[in-house]
Amino acid sequence: MPSQYSAEDLVVARMKELVDLRTSWNRSLWQVGSIVALGEIVESVSATWSGQLTSPEAMKDFITGHKRQINLDHGLGSQDVRTRLLTLMESLPVKLAPDPRNPTADGRASLAQIAELLERGRSGYLLRWASHINSRGVRTQDVEVIARLVVSHLLDEGFNRSHIHGWLTNLPTGQSLAETVERGDAMLFQPKREFELLIAIRTLPSTVADAVEPMSLPPQEFLDAFKLTTNSAFEKAPRLPATAIRLTFTTRDPHSAISEATTWIRKFSDRVAVGTGGAEAIFEHLIVDRTTNKVRSFKDERQLVRVPSMQRNALFGSISVDSNSTD
Q1: Distance between CA atoms of 272 and 284, rounded to whole angstroms?
Q2: One digit per residue, pLDDT tens: the chain, 327 residues?
Q3: Looking at residue 319, what is its pLDDT?
């Protein structure tokens, strides 16, 4: 029975799945975009030549691992451009003098051309994909490639996965895939914004109080700001915290600001634990985003690996112990 969904519909659905926090680890995104991939090649080659990498094997692995992706990526340019990139990539390992830290002139020229094509590819990357989709259409076998390359490019350019998911969820009815990709390109030109976040701390060791004093604010100010937010999720206001702090992040979207705040909180908590011998700094999970006047929550966005067979077969305690081990 023919599917009621077109290949373009499937691309959008797959893009949403790739950035959905609820997606299982084996269905989520496990690659970087092609611009970052080319940057990794340039970096690994340069590090090999400078002696930072003592073996050319890492450089060869990067080149081999990214060849197929580069060849399929219409966002980088025409087939001639991609063939040229592949030719340059393949020539790098053999265009070295006997000492990998002393490349030949041809080797340096090849690397310089890759770096130049990388920068050209970054400009107009999504517009080239939109043009390809408009002129060639989308085949069923192209769905996964297009979804992964477009999403990975947006993530590499600084957008948060939750922001991309919200954007895709609210696409106008009837908008074509090419128009969606063009809209993604337009988003890249929007300036980054400064987000002011108010964060409450429930417990803070007295020995650490001086460290947060420059960024601190009265605890009641946090609660007052909380009550003035739209609070669309009807989150319950926390109790008066021990203290509160104000942090500012300049990012592409509010979700990215929360992600950066989460990283800051994690690092701060770890430093407190290490610096005090185990004392804890405990944060409220709700954050007031003063820029958008919303209540947001910080959480771990890392994808956890789950192995259901361990539960089905009750293997949690089935760990063999060698009584003769000297470790």
Answers
A1: 16
A2: 456 789 999 999 999 999 998 898 889 998 999 999 999 999 988 888 888 887 788 888 889 989 999 999 999 999 999 999 999 998 886 555 555 556 677 888 889 999 999 999 999 999 999 999 999 999 999 999 999 999 999 999 999 999 999 999 999 999 999 999 999 999 999 999 999 999 999 999 988 888 888 999 999 999 999 999 998 778 888 899 999 999 999 999 999 999 999 999 999 999 999 998 888 999 999 999 999 999 998 865 555 566 777 777 777 676 655 555 454
A3: 60
Residue 189, CA atoms < 13 Å, CB-side half-sphere = 9
Token reading at 85? 């990139």
Alpha carbon of residue 224 to chain centroid: 33
- Contact between 150 and 181 under an 8 Å Cβ cutoff? The reply is yes
Q: What is the dihedral of CA 164, 168, 169, 170, to 10 degrees?
A: 110
Place of tokens 């030109």: 189
Q: Backbone phi, then psi, for 288, in 5-degree steps?
A: -95, 120
Bridge partner list, 289? 197, 294
The pairing of strands 193-203 and 216-217 is: unpaired
AA letter at 309:
S
Work out the angle at residue 241's Cα, subtended by the Cα atoms of residues 238 and 245, and round it to the nearest 5 degrees.
110
Q: Tell me how far apart the alpha carbons of residues 305 and 24 are, in angstroms, rounded to a whole number.
A: 8
* Residue 154, amino acid: L
CA atoms within 13 A on the CB side of 247: 20
CB distance 33 to 156 below 8 Å: yes
Give the list of residues 6+ apart from residue 30 with CB closer than 8 angstroms, or none.
none
β-strands 294-297, 282-289 pairing: antiparallel
Task: Say how many C-beta atoms besides its own lie within 10 A of residue 58's C-beta.
Answer: 14
Which amino acid, 107? G
Element housing 93 (H / E): none
* Contact indicator for 165, 19 with CB cutoff of 8 Å: yes
Location of structure tokens 């393949």: 90
